[in-house]
Amino acid sequence: MHLEIITPDQKVFDGEVESATFPGSDGSFQILNDHAPLISSLAKGDLIYVNNEGTHNLVVDGGVVEVLNNKIIVLAEAVIN
To answer: Structural domain of residue 17, as residue ranges?
Structure first.
């Protein structure tokens, strides 16, 4: 599935992933391939994604995530690498 992480300043990541875990406002949740459509707010915390290069960890400072048709779009307030 495709993951795109965007902040007001830059595109942080754009590529294929196997899974992604997000810091939801009510607790963390994971997205896998063929997940049901979803829109959720994000709290400050760890955004973890796994691709063919390994596991990557970013810290987001809130935002929104949308999942639709195996595409995940993250609109983050800020990302701390």
So the answer is: 2-80
